[in-house]
Specification:
mainly alpha; 4 helices; about 0% strand; globular
């Protein structure tokens, strides 16, 4: 298996990969996805992981704190890729920073 430099600092490096690749995103699988995303929140390489997943079209698993549906949305709207935020969160953040909203 090929290892990228950034992946050597990943919070998930020593954890069971099955946590990040549940069979389903419903029921117990949903709980796994949420646990995996929690681990990703504090990961020092979250953004490179997310960038890798989007650029290589990773269709399964939790990468960079996102599930497959979130990555599809981010890939469809590259402007929303501010630290893995969905388009609506990124837009709200942008609005809160604009001079008109002050």
């Amino acid at each position: 298996m090929m290892m990228f430099d950034w992946s050597r600092a990943a919070a998930c490096l020593t954890l069971d990969p099955e946590l990040f690749f549940p069979i389903s995103t419903e029921g117990l699988g949903h709980e796994q996805v949420e646990r995996a995303k929690t681990i990703c929140q504090g990961c020092p390489v979250r953004q490179p992981c997310l960038d890798y997943a989007i650029s290589t079209g990773q269709a399964y698993g939790v990468w960079g704190g996102t599930d497959p549906a979130q990555r599809r949305a981010l890939a469809a709207n590259p402007a929303a890729r501010v630290h893995g935020q969905s388009g609506s969160k990124a837009a709200a953040r942008k609005r809160s920073r604009s001079p008109a909203s002050r």
